[in-house]
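Changelog-adjacent note: as of this version, every example in the card shows the full chain rather than a window. The one below runs 383 residues end to end.
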Amino acid sequence: MARALYIHWPFCAKKCPYCDFNSHVRARVDEGDWLAALVADMRAEAALAGGEALTSIFFGGGTPSLMLPPLVAALLSEAERLWSFDPAIEITLEANPSSVEAANFAALASVGVNRVSLGVQSLDDTELRFLGRLHGADEALAALETAQAHFARVSFDLIYALPGHTPDLWHKRLNRALAFGTGHLSLYQLTIEPGTRFASDVRRGRMVPLDDDAAAELFDITQELTGAAGLPAYETSNHARADEQSRHNLAYWRYQDYCGIGPGAHGRRGSVATVRHKKPENFLKAIATQGDGIAEARALAVPEQAAEALLMGLRLTEGVNLDVLSARFALPRAGLVDVGALTRLRTLGLVWVEGSRIGVAPPGRGVLDALLAEIVADSLVAA
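Full-length structure tokens:
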């Protein structure tokens, strides 16, 4: 099993109106206190999760690029002491493409970060203002150039299917993004998440999302252009050149173990799912009182594990191996998938079957959630 470590930095300069991640705006952050807390949480997790060498570390957020390089260096040093590093370890840090944060890229690379994921989101200033971003398009492009100069691997995010997006507009925007030559792109349709400001705007009639048919057309354009450029989808929203897929995210989607530390971080060790306290102040209090930030450590029943492995694995274009899952969870194939539904969806060209491996075919990726509801055996869902 691959061993991955996720470190959550919950702080942002501003809360974006579409974001439902665990992020918080604070006037002041004491990095000394947070180093001590994250190291304590890491040590507590390592004591339970064993000492297998790490193959990936992912700094997510929030906005991890707001962390000073010495803090990142100290956390990496402690992680290496606790687990050791695989020689080919991938160390990713999510970053906002502001000039202030880009100024730290050289220092971050020098302390071990070898992959950066930039939250560009759009290359249009009007759209960036709509999305609540603090950077402009020119600033984002400058940060991208700086990142490509310092990191071996660079990815950036774009959000599409915004109100007013047309096929012609998205075609031009995506072709421009592909021309920058990064080996990985994360391309997300705008989703109105509960509890966000955008959800409130939609409810009050201040914003009208793009309809499903129009969004589906943009999704098809995305698959076509990225495939032609040599960055095909390897997951629903993630596209990469060969061997440049995010190893950390692959560990997650392949249902391998990963340790999650920091406020709101999720993790899984064996059959136990962990969740840390979300609010930064509650996380710090838990560290002080119990020695770790865990809010819940829950044993997962076998049917729940099998269902999660299917739901995540079928997001990948590589699909899942039913024989491997059957052996792993001691369940027959018929206990994993609805064979009748699988046969019908295969006939419709929405899924593929190759020996013991199944996956969602390109025509089915745009309706993935509906397909998953049909494929996964009722016995797993009911359990």
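Structural remarks: The two ends are 26 Å apart (CA to CA).
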